[in-house]
Structure formats: C-alpha cells, structure tokens
Amino acid sequence: MKSLFNTETCSEILNRINTLTKSTKATWGEMEIGQMLHHCQFPLSLALGRYQMKKPNPFVKLIFKSFKKGMYDDKLWKPNLPTAKDFKVSDKKDFEPEKIILVDLVNDFHLEKDRKIWEPHPAFGPFTHEQWGKMQYKHLDHHLRQFGV
User: How far apart are CA 142 and CA 44, in angstroms?
Assistant: First the structure.
C-alpha cells in the first residue's frame, strides 16, 4: 500500500483532490462532495492530535482491533463500508472551504514524514509510522475512488 509520507504519493493525492469540483458526484454511498471532504479531515486531524475521538468501550475496541490490519494492508476497501460514528457527516458542507482544509491537512500530515513517535489511535491502538502513512493514504484513496478520481 502506498504511504502519504511518500512525496510522489502525496502529490498524487493532492492532484486527485484538485480535480474534484463542487458538482462531482459519488459513484456509491450517501455523502455529497462537501461532506466527503469534511469526513476525510477527521483521520488526518486525529493523527495530528487536532481532533479527539471518544474512546470506545472495551468490547467495541476489541472489535476495532480485529479490523486493524485492514486499515493499512494492500487490499482496497469495498464500497459502502460503514463509517465510524465520530466521523459521520450529516449536515451539508461547502465545497471550497472543505477542500482547502483537506489540502492543508494532507500537506501537514506529509510534513510529519520524519516523525518517529505517534500517539495510539483511540480505537485501534498503536500504529507504526509506516502504518499511519499507509492508513491515511488508503482512506483518502477510498473516498477519491468513491468520487471517480
């Protein structure tokens, strides 16, 4: 799986984001474009310590851990996977400001490419540096494919 810490991969993701327009439609799922851009900000903000997700109860955390490897392995995520409760976006979002914020977060995350120590994910637990980079790429790729780019 590609990593958002790789400069070429980061450029690829930014180029794909920049091909989106406010009229781009999803090929699956219920989110419209502004909602998707807002949704994609949560995992990046979480990794950067700018968003606090509620820790799940021990039973739910155990379920999350059983899916942990799927967050960064080479298998693409299938369309219409359920969204984590804390990352759901139900209200309308304006395309341009959401796109600007997401691009800034992608760049900020990429700048952490030399960082060695990461806080554990509240639901999945610890990830290595490499796993954080792959997971962020995989999530963005999934939603960009959702919108055909």
Answer: 14
